[in-house]
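Quick one, T. Sequence first:
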Amino acid sequence: MCFVHSGTMPDGSLRHQASAGPGADALSRLAAGEEGIGGMDVAGSGTPDVTAGPGGQTVVDGYGRVLHNRWNRDLPPVATVRPGEVVQLLCRDALDIGEAARTMTPDGTLTIDLGLVHPLTGPVEIVGAEPGDILEVEILDVGPLVDFGYVAISPALGLFGSLRPEALAPFASWSEASQVSDPTPGPAAGAIPEDQAYNSGAPFLQTFAFERGQSDGLASFTGVDTGKTAHIPVAPFMGILGVAPLHRGMYRTFPPDVSGAMGGNTDIRQLVKGARVQFPVYVPGAMFSAGDGHMAQGDGEVTGTAVETLMAVTLRFGLVKNTVIASSRAIVPAADPTQLTMPAEMLRRGYYQTVGTGPDLMENAKTAVREMIDWLVNDQQVSLHEAYALCSVAGDLKINETVDLPKWLVSMTLPRGIFG
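Structure tokens:
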């Protein structure tokens, strides 16, 4: 399968590394295993003006080259730090398409080799970490290395695959619950225009704009189908944080916790700057890695992608000795971190809310999202794909109640104030 790779030049070199300008030599020294480096100016590479803050902390380059994209407890460390020391990880985007996202066509998303997704920066060895300990990871800062991000919709990704991947999808519109009593039903009424790609699995790519190093405020959305504009509240975080697995072998990054409670592709949007995350340690040194930077994401990440981007994350590690936990856990700054960055006027406009109810939580989630898509298409005149993308980056799925068994209720909320 053909793969569009952002980092490959005709001569085989890495574009990211080649463009690093004044920071290239420093990154090369780090990659070669020489001592850690402190703050450095790499403005020519699309990174923030300074990619490492004061203090001379170690910088690990997972931006100029792919370090690994599988969990494996036998991988050697690329850096070693002591508890209390600060390390900054430079990370590629989840699909590893980088600059190609600016010009990639929707069909180009179908050429992405999913065997190469989730490049990770690490492993970082933490001195003194032993099996039976807790590794505590303090997130000091998260910021984008570039000024753009993207959402991809593809048959291989997301809550629906594309929009309706089920085998009987073409018949779904003829069997809506509201028409079951009719012995000769026609297609169910809906707000989605007939000329839009629907039930077709059509791919889609939407880009977002923001500033390099931006850690709050809004990202700009201009729908590629309709030109509709919106402003998405941002709260940068890493979708993947984890330690080396309990069992030997090589594991994909998804689903999370593939071996023990090691973390992984959790996509927990609350793990922003200021969060403290704890992981059980399974191997000497813990062997921590991170990747999959998200500039904005709703709870659910329903398309399978958030606002994906290349990210720098600054961390400090601590240890809790001789304490066992069954899964990762965290103290987070806010249940909804985007509310910390939303302007007052945006908050005053309230939220759209849709619901799904029934005996299957996943089907309830799909119903809530479909209803939100339908509402946005009708109320905001966005396209079907644009609505789906907005649900992924700004829509939050919630389990509202489990009391009315055997039926449960799931809702989606989306801030109305994002639209200009």
